[in-house]
Amino acid sequence: MPRKVTPLTDSAIKAAKPKEKTFKLTDGQGLYLDVKPTGSKLWRFKYRFNGKEMTPLSFGPYPALTLVKARQKRTEARELLAQGVDPGAEKKAAKQAQRADGVTFETLAREWYAYNAPRWAESTAYKARLYMENDLIPGIGARPVKAITRPELVELVRKVEARGTLNAAGKIRQWLHQIFRFGLASGVVEANPATDLDVVAAPPKATRHHPHVAFAELPELLGKIESTTLNTLTRCAIRLLVLTAVRPGELRQAPWSEFDLEQRREMMQAWADSIDALCGGANVVSIKRKA
């Protein structure tokens, strides 16, 4: 036969003095009050679920949570148990939902960035942060993330497109999609409003190729370069571009360690001879052998 418990009274609770160790004041049906050595008093609810003793639920401190309200919470928890619901799991779910309701897009975007940035190349992390700070957060950063709709995102991307920066708009669409996917996995949103934003994307601009010199025009170009007053560095750079076919940026930023003038002299001379022959023997790009 279970031991009969005398229900607590407010006067008994107020009269309880702290001891060297925490002790309990039991009210019955799983409800008790922890009295700490510091003098603080905390309501707890002890229960079993599916035959297993669970971690006691914390209801709140006394006297902020009165005896009457603590008993009310006990009744609610016992009703959940009668329905086959774990009150501890229900409390965690309610906390998560409350947190999700208060999460703004800025909070979610910064969490997404902090999680992914260490895995990205430095250039990718820089661009993502740049667009996040310049376009995403100023546009919708203060909005509760659960309240953001697809039309809002379409409007945001169209403002970027209106600047003529279609590549940036494409990146922003991708990152919006990733941010909301992160929110789905984190449990702060129930749907991803950033899906299919590419369906209403502005049409791409017609491709413009950089001006180029046809192979047949190369002799004339090289002849003009030799006969025209140019900065010596510019003339040498053009010769190197013809000989190596690298990108202009690669040529400008090439370190000296990439130039092996001794071992590659014969190969470069062969290239120069080929260009000279193409130019009708004008010897416009010859490289003299080392004496």
Description:
With 291 residues, this protein is α+β, with helices and mostly antiparallel strands. The chain has 3 domains: 20-96, Double Stranded RNA Binding Domain; 105-200, Tyrosine recombinase, N-terminal domain (DNA polymerase, domain 1, Orthogonal Bundle), CATH 1.10.150; 215-278, no CATH class. It has 11 helices and 6 strands. The strands form 2 sheets. The chain has a 4-stranded antiparallel beta sheet with strand order 1-2-3-6, covered by helices on one side. A two-stranded antiparallel ribbon has the order 4-5. β1 and β2 (31-35) form a beta hairpin. The protein is elongated, with a radius of gyration of 37 Å. Mean pLDDT is 83; it is low at 282-291.
Structure described in brief:
The protein has 291 residues and is of the alpha+beta class. Helix content is 50%, strand content 9%.
Keywords:
DNA polymerase, domain 1, alpha+beta, 291 residues, 4-stranded antiparallel beta sheet, disordered C terminus, two-stranded antiparallel sheet, 6 strands, Double Stranded RNA Binding Domain
Following the backbone from N to C, one meets helices and strands in this order, namely HEEEEEEHHHHHHHHHH
Number of discrete helical segments: 11
CATH-assigned homologous superfamily of the largest domain: Tyrosine recombinase, N-terminal domain
Q: Averaged pLDDT, please?
A: 83
Shape: elongated
Number of separate strands: 6
Structural class: alpha+beta
List the strand order in the largest sheet.
Answer: 1-2-3-6
Poorly predicted ranges: 282-291
Please bin the fraction of helical residues.
40-55%
* Span between termini: 113 Å
Number of domains: 3
CATH-assigned fold name of the largest domain: DNA polymerase, domain 1
CATH class of the largest domain: Mainly Alpha
Q: What is the gyration radius calculated from CA atoms?
A: 37 Å
By CATH, the architecture of the largest domain is named: Orthogonal Bundle
The largest pleated sheet is described as:
4 strands, antiparallel
